[in-house]
Design goal:
- Helix content is about 20%, strand content about 30%.
- By secondary structure, it is α/β, with parallel strands linked by helices.
- It has a single domain, classed as Metallo-beta-lactamase, Chain A (4-Layer Sandwich), CATH 3.60.15.
- A hairpin with a 2-residue loop joins strand 11 and strand 12.
- The radius of gyration is 16 Å and the shape is globular.
- The chain starts with a strand and ends in a 6-residue tail after the last helix.
- Keywords: Hydrolase, Metal-binding, Zinc.
- Pfam families: Lactamase_B (PF00753).
- This is Glyoxylase-like metal-dependent hydrolase (Beta-lactamase superfamily II).
- One of its GO terms (molecular function) is hydrolase activity.
């Protein structure tokens, strides 16, 4: 059975997700955010073996805790090919663009994705959807009932496109061509804010509806 726990981490309250099977005690982490102590304490308390760290994209607020979580869990990191070099580049991941922000870097990811793959990890199956626009290598992970959309789609909103490599038209194409094609009842776990559903966003999101 899939359990999904969300943790708001870092200065911009980024959603990190711990997804695990309470029977097998195996799981994955989506977007470990920054300052992931709370997440790591929960993993330790549950005695969950983390088999993968899945990055929807490499902005600093989503990847800032990668090294700490990787060190504590031994899990491999997955990222899209177009952002594999962002982990080591503060200007691309954005941490080098904010004077008060530490310049964040991480070692290379163990697994590079391009979109279209089906991942079998921790007893779960995730289809990798290439959903660029918020950033060039943004991806979403769909398991048939839930989609982890990163900063592509939010409840009543969409990701910003004024950061390095962002493009509004590309994002709208990604949302309409990939995410809005998912079943209505699909639960959307976004990079910020509360969960929603594809049906709700199709009908009420002002950037999509109409």
């Amino acid at each position: 059975m899939m359990n999904v726990e969300m943790f708001e981490l870092g200065p911009v309250m980024t959603n990190a997700y711990l997804v695990y099977d309470s029977q097998t005690q195996k799981g994955v982490v989506f977007d470990p955010g920054m300052y992931p102590d709370q997440l790591l304490q929960r993993i330790k308390k549950l005695h969950v073996t983390i088999e993968a760290i899945l990055l929807t994209h490499a902005h600093f607020d989503h990847m800032g805790g990668v090294e700490e979580v990787r060190t504590h869990t031994g899990a491999s990191v997955y990222i899209h090919k177009k952002e594999e070099d962002w982990l080591a580049d503060p200007m691309k991941n954005g941490s080098g663009r904010w004077p008060m922000m530490p310049k964040l870097t991480a070692r290379p990811a163990e697994h590079i994705l391009v979109g279209g793959e089906t991942l079998q990890i921790a007893g779960f199956q995730f289809k990798v959807l290439y959903t660029p626009g918020h950033s060039p290598g943004s991806i979403s992970f769909y398991d048939g009932a839930h989609v982890f959309s990163g900063d592509a789609l939010f409840r009543d909103s969409i990701g910003r496109t004024d950061l390095y490599g962002g493009d509004h038209k590309t994002l709208i194409r990604s949302i309409k061509g990939k995410l809005m094609e998912l079943p209505d009842q699909t639960v959307v776990y976004s990079g910020h804010g509360p969960e929603t559903t594809i049906e709700r966003e199709r009908n009420h999101n002002p950037f999509i509806a109409g």
